[in-house]
Amino acid sequence: MAMPEPIGLREIKYLPEEINIWMYAIVAIGSAFLVFVVISVYLMWRSMRAERSDIERETLCEAEKLPASTSVTSLHSDRSFVATP
């Protein structure tokens, strides 16, 4: 069995001699997908932030209507945490 000869550095080519249009199509589709993912994550983050600020605004409005002895954190409806007044 014969050993293959090593390839010289001058013989190695990084780009194909003939560039195919499908290569550009795949790169464009991949780039569009990445842009779509980044925009989607940003919009989800922005909507969560807006929803959180709305909840905080409603909580503060409700707190202004209650007597001073009531804790602001007791107004949360999900009861995910407990705070002492």
pLDDT averaged residue by residue = 75
Query: In sequence order, what are the helices and strands, one letter per element?
Result: H
Radius of gyration: 30 Å
Percent helix:
40-55%
Largest sheet: none
Which structural class do the helices and strands define?
mainly alpha
Instruction: Assess the beta-strand content as a share of residues.
Output: under 5%
Q: Which regions are unreliable across 5 or more consecutive residues at pLDDT < 50?
A: none
> How many runs of DSSP E, i.e. beta strands?
0
The backbone outline, from C-alpha atoms, is rod-shaped
Report how far apart the termini are: 85 Å
Keywords: Membrane, Transmembrane, Transmembrane helix
Report on the structure:
- Helix content is 53%, strand content 0%.
- The chain has 85 residues and is mainly alpha-helical.
- It is rod-shaped, with a radius of gyration of 30 Å.
- Keywords: Membrane, Transmembrane, Transmembrane helix.
